[in-house]
Amino acid sequence: MSSDVTVREVMTREFVGVNEGDRVVETVELLLDEGAECAIVLRGRDPVGMLSERDALSLVTSDTDPATATVADVMSDGVIQIPSDEPLTAAAGTMGREGVRWLLAVEDEDPVGVVTAHDVVVASTMVPDADTGTGPRSSTSDPAAEYDTQGICEACGALANDLVNANGQLVCTNCREA
Fold first, then answer.
1. Mean pLDDT throughout 41-54?
2. What are the residue boundaries of the CBS domain, all occurrences included (predicted)?
3. Between the CA atoms of 139, 7, 119 and 175, what dihedral angle is there, to the nearest 10 degrees?
4. What is the pLDDT of residues 63-87, one digit of tens each?
């Protein structure tokens, strides 16, 4: 992954924002309509949490009635933020350290987008069409040398530092051994 690529270049600028009093069912419908993985929970303009697919699924095993559950009932508190001008490699490192699949991109403390693990993978696996002279050149003709070894395992979805190409998929150590 090129260290020149910034969060701003790959983030999704139109993100789903909800408030704590919104119903989970309506929020999930909105996520599905928008094709989004998560919703940023806002109190005014301040991000206070996130609602992910996993948070919504937690209703299945809880005593809370899904029809009346609010975002506040199931959201994850806190939002891990990253400045939009940070390198994408920093976002990948933060995701790995924090064990999350998305970060809120901010400019001057204002939310401006969401960067997901999927965004990191897509950006890290893209091979430039032509040498523009902006990045390091590979001294080998091996196409695998064009890729960084950090990213999301295509078999299990985990963020890993040691991906290898196995049968056309980038997989982590655990999936490689299975």
1. 92
2. 14-61, 78-125
3. 60
4. 889 889 999 999 999 899 999 999 9
